[in-house]
Design a protein that fits this description.
The chain is an all-alpha fold. It is built from three helices and no strands.
Length: 105
Amino acid sequence: MLMQTLDDAAVIALIPGLVLMLRRTGLPARLETAAMVAGGVLLVCLADLATGTTGPTTATVAGWLLTGLIDGLAAAGLTRLAPPRGSTPSRPTPDHDAGQNIGLR
């Protein structure tokens, strides 16, 4: 079975760090998502090969590609949700007119 040594959550957490290293060495921002998917496939493949249980068959390669795609896209989605570095999260301001639009007074 895939991912016996490295959980998917760990792979998803590692991918943004790997892509950040690539960005600092010159990776264009437009290739960030592709790099995350490629990183996911690479990490899933390496983690499965580290178990040493089976060699690469058609089924295992398909599993690596699918799991890496899912993990890479999940990591890309999580990085989009995170606030940019150095920014402070915005706090909701109290709405003094709350309820007036729906007839509560």
